[in-house]
Predict the structure.
Amino acid sequence: MNNDLFQPGSSQPQLPRYIVVEGPIGVGKTALVKRMAEAFHYQSLLEQADSNPFLEKFYENRQQNALATQLFFLFQRARLLEDLHQQDLFEPLRIADFMIEKDRLFAELLLADEEFKLYDMVYQRLAIEAPRPDLVIYLQAPPHILLQRIQQRGLRAEQSINVDYLEQITEAYSRFFHFYDDAPLLIINAEQMDMIDDERIFRSLTDYMLGIRSGRHYFNPSFYSEALL
């Protein structure tokens, strides 16, 4: 694996300075962030879901534990973005596996009306200042594929996740990104993980990504896999 696809200061096309990778659980966000950080010398900004003490109980009983779980994630994400905002936004390059908008997406989906009112009061008081991404990458995969990956990685806290929950999450993400236009958007079919495991497809993805300056774009690794045979 080549870890030096682009060296800082080279004559290569200009890299996006701040990239966000998003998508439902199990879709491969963190894996892609780590792969791109390694290749492009990005500093990665990663959620630490396993540090949420309410998460396992949430998967076992979503209705009872949704508010505590969501508030913990909100404070965690706000702290990460506050640290980022206080640093120099121009150095180094950064890539994250979350965007703050996802927090509200999950809150609207999972919280009861009165709980959401409380969540919204907290959210507004935090006055989170999130930097605008230069590129958002949205990974998509069918719920049954997500469930397979979750089961394969075998994290105890995630073993109560079912396909119905994943269908709700994927539908919520689809609705959100259907209207999203705050930053250039690259939508990737992540049903196969070829874009991470296959060097040639990863290079095709990065070449495509570097040409994006605005608008909405699509990348299907399966198409490139067949073309490279």
Remarks:
- The first strand starts at residue 18 and ends at 22.
- DSSP finds ten helices and six strands in the chain.
- The beta strands are 18-22, 43-45, 94-96, 135-140, 185-189, 216-219.
- The longest helix spans residues 62-86.
